[in-house]
Amino acid sequence: MIADDHALFRDGLRSLLTAQGHEVVGEARTGKEAVALAHQLAPDLVLMDLAMPELDGLSATRQLIAEIPAVRVVILTASEDDSNLFEAVKAGAQGYLPKNLEADDIFSLLERASHGEPALTPAFARRLLQEFARPEKEEAAEEEALTPREREVLGLMVEGVTSNRKLAKRLNLSENTVKFHVRNILDKLRLHDRAQIVGYAMRRKMADKEPT
Fold it and tell me: Per residue in 113-130, pLDDT tens?
């Protein structure tokens, strides 16, 4: 199954897959459609774009893996952002492929994915290994760099208070001050957005730790 909001790309990919003897059972143009179609059609493999309306590819992947564990999702994207790669793997994606790959390379990696093996280009595999090889001491040092106020902001975000307006109200601060604290948290933890802050904090159980 192909999930991509660009009809021309879907047409081209469908033609390539069909020429290689693969059956394309369905196509979705949004993440929401992808989840619904996967439930209906039970595909072996879903090729998932990241930037789609209604529900993005990462969210759709998380939902699919949670609801249909047997399905294998391979991200096929133009994004070179490392954070998307890491989040896709954490979400349960079987692979992560750039759209500018040669057709032969795509088919070779999809064959691996269909057998339950990781489908990653050498460059993406290296980035992934480097990320997960980061020493725990390094992560601990990043956490210790947070100020008590930044930890307070982080704790509220884990509780679900994520908008600047609500954070400002809870902390009796201006929205600009809250933005400053959030930016500092992102920089110190080397993250890209608020969702990653919450995921990182929950994984490391940071909200439960007393400031040092």
Answer: 888 888 888 888 877 776
